[in-house]
Design brief:
- The protein has a 4-stranded mixed sheet with strand order 2-1-4-3, with helices on both faces.
- The protein contains 4 helices and 4 strands; from the N terminus they run βαβαββαα.
- The chain is an alpha+beta fold.
- Helix 1 links the parallel strand 1 and strand 2.
Length: 133
């Protein structure tokens, strides 16, 4: 069982997530790209964190949007091999998609839309955990 206020945290490169959730949940900002967020998640998994939300959730591909927010549980225990397998697979998928077709140089309006979409996906994931905003 997850202790929703103490053990979960969000890794994100989306400033909207920081602005909205930083006062109520632990949020770590990644100053980088979508794949940089995935690498940070992998590093956290190696130190015992467990994936709560899927790194590729939603229908927007990693080479379409520059933003990703991922929920983890901070356990600081043994390596969770299922989480490691999921994040490694997600990194490989992301690299393949980016190699095939890099993320476009979107306008500011489109970037705003992608930040909003990422926030809505995160809110949905939090809602499924019983956390509503």
């Amino acid at each position: 069982m997850i202790s929703l206020t103490r053990n979960i945290y969000i890794l994100t490169n989306n400033v909207l997530i920081c602005d909205k959730f930083n006062d109520t949940l632990k949020v770590s900002y990644v100053d980088g790209s979508y794949i940089d967020v995935l690498y940070q998640v992998r590093d956290r998994i190696h130190t015992g964190s467990v994936l709560i939300s899927h790194p590729l959730m939603g229908s927007v591909k990693p080479n379409e949007t520059p933003y990703r927010s991922i929920i983890l549980e901070d356990k600081k225990g043994a390596l969770d091999f299922q989480s490691l397998s999921i994040i490694e697979s997600s990194i490989e998928s992301c690299k393949k998609l980016l190699n095939d077709r890099p993320t476009p140089d979107w306008s500011n309006k489109v970037l705003e839309d992608f930040r909003f979409l990422d926030m809505k996906l995160l809110e949905s994931a939090l809602s499924s955990l019983g956390i509503n905003y």
